[in-house]
């Protein structure tokens, strides 16, 4: 943006850098969550700058955004990597989720309209009929995001979203396992959650959510091979 003399308006350059940073961060987030960049992958700033036709400044800003999301780890004087966690770390994330997601669900329930439950029910049936792990996770995230959409809290929702981002890769690998095994418990839990929400039963909904998260944590612990260390190139 410029004034009538063609001079950049105050803050225009900074705004441009911010927009570029968000564009790069969005593209990198998609690459990480899709598995294109698996945990432990080295992220080279010069390659990102060349790929997106940007300077180092918006690239560094984009990596800081992704670090705040829990998707990237920045090491001083060393570089950036896609975040990678071992089983004990992932179990800790899930134990935190077991405590905070029922809180978010309780905060959300009074603000949920009946049509939200219809949408969730439809998503639950779509999840039950797909054999694609990627599609399942996309639908699953939309399903649970809808259940939290009535909450007015900002901080709690951001924490939950960060936890989901940090564990996404491991949930993707586990989803592939349970789809291959034909496990249907997760679908029953989704239907139970919708029923509890429809009945405005916050206690039952929180109980289902806690059990849903805990069962995944326990199942992940039975598959330590999912946490095999990825060596950076």
UniProtKB/TrEMBL annotation:
CDD domains: WHTH_GntR. Keywords: DNA-binding, Transcription, Transcription regulation. InterPro entries: GntR_C, TF_FadR/GntR_C, Tscrpt_reg_HTH_GntR, WH-like_DNA-bd_sf, WH_DNA-bd_sf. The keyword Transcription applies. Residues 18-85 form the HTH gntR-type domain. It comes from the Bacteria. GO terms for molecular function: DNA binding; DNA-binding transcription factor activity. PANTHER family: TRANSCRIPTIONAL REGULATOR, GNTR FAMILY, TRANSCRIPTIONAL REGULATORY PROTEIN. This is FCD domain-containing protein.
């Amino acid at each position: 943006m410029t004034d009538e003399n063609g001079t950049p308006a105050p803050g225009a350059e900074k705004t441009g850098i911010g927009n570029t940073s968000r564009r790069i961060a969005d593209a990198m987030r998609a690459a990480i969550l899709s598995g294109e960049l698996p945990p432990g992958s080295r992220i080279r700033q010069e390659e990102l700058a060349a790929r997106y036709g940007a300077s180092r400044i918006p690239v560094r800003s984009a990596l800081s955004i992704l670090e705040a999301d829990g998707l990237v780890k920045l090491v001083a004087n060393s570089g950036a990597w896609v975040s990678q966690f071992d089983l004990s770390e992932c179990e800790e994330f899930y134990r935190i989720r077991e405590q905070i997601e029922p809180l978010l669900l309780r905060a959300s329930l009074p603000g949920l309209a009946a049509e939200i439950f219809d949408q969730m029910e439809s998503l639950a049936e779509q999840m039950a009929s797909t054999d694609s792990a990627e599609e399942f996770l996309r639908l699953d995230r939309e399903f649970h995001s809808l259940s939290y959409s009535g909450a007015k809290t900002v901080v709690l929702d951001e924490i939950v979203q960060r936890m989901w981002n940090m564990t996404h890769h491991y949930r993707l690998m586990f989803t592939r396992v349970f789809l291959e095994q034909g496990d249907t418990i997760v679908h029953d839990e989704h239907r139970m959650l919708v029923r509890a929400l429809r009945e405005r039963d916050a206690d039952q909904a929180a109980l289902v959510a806690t059990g849903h998260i805990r069962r995944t944590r326990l199942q992940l612990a039975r598959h330590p091979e999912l946490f095999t260390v990825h060596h950076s190139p």
